[in-house]
Please model this.
Amino acid sequence: MDEEPAPHALPRRFWAQALKGAMARYQAFRTWVRIGLDDQECTFDDVLLGFSAFIDVAPQDSLAQLDELYTRCRQELVGQGRVLDPDTPGYDLPGLVVAIREFMHNEGFSLPQRGALLSPLSQFPPHLLGPGRSTTLPMSMNWVFAAICRRLGIRAGPTNTPMKVLCHITSPDPQKGDMIFDVCGSDPPITFSSKDPTVMLAEAGMPSSSRPDAVLPASLSLMVRRAAENIFNVTRAPPGVWGRAVEPIWRADYAASAVVVALGSRWEAYARQRRLFEEAPPTCPLDEPVFVDVLNEYSSQRRDGDVGRRPTFTAARPNSHPPRRRPHSVFVPFVGQACSTGCTIGWKVVERADGPPQRVHYVLTPRGILTPHLHGTSRFRPTSLLTPLAARSFRQALIPFDRYVEDAAIPRGDGLGGRFVPTLELQAEYPDDLEYGERWTDIQLGVHN
Model:
């Protein structure tokens, strides 16, 4: 016997996913704030792990992927007869780091070909540990390499070298020099003869005017900022390259913006947090309260100099209005009505002293929620046809479809009289529209009660 479909399955799934994502992003944002406060318990793992949460993957899941990669690498090193204990005779650190790099290259980790379009998710662990490992960035490759090294007991960390992140490796033997290593290339590691940054810069072939962290481990907060800048370089490219409303672009830009707020001073965070949530993807509606909770928790620890004054972060109140009854004076599309580019999810009538009332309706489109009176009307003309195929296509293209629509009512295979069924939330906001839509369908089908 076929089971009845779960009631309100689409919006329930949406809100469950939104809650799960908000919980993961709470942990990620909290960790980035701690990194900004130089929390010594944070590691280079934490720099990129948090990005996982911004595509609704728990950082712990990406950590498990790293652990699995380390296990395979260790097995291969043992199979090669490599000595992994620095206190055991025959331990060869330069040879070991080269072998780890070879393992990574054999696993498919590499930089993109010159001129190739870089994914906005190239620093997001679920992507860079999976399908995106062949077109990633030096930051990401060093992140994977350093993670494997640390699990093998090797102290490895990224440098802030201009143009290309390298890896600093600390020798366990005080009689031997530290190294700097290009994880992306094929050159052997450079072993330094001194711990003096001036000497190290010269031996690495870098200008003496370079920052010391060009050859020494950089601070984690600096590397998180650099990762965010890498993301902005992709997401804020000219519109012809990327469209902001494309979900991966939107999510990546949101993550990088969250880094800026997390690492900023108290007043920087206070100034930026409102814009962060105004521009957040509509698939992340529960993030603001949990982020604000983190900002208030750590506000007193931010080193701003102005100790006596401290901003209090507050979440914006959700927009609310009394139920909107359908007007008789002016026509507005009903909630759930399809148009050529999306679905109507709301409307309002604005009374004007100098003319007739102005109708405004809100359409969910692949570019987000748009208002036809501001963005032109030809693409938003209501349609009387909604086929099952078109309904499925809309669900795939519209972000976030499941937040506003829970079903489609399609009485005929040719789509005549087809419409979307809004969620209970929208039905409460627009209490006349569901019945109005039913009558509209009857009219399209020539049914008169």
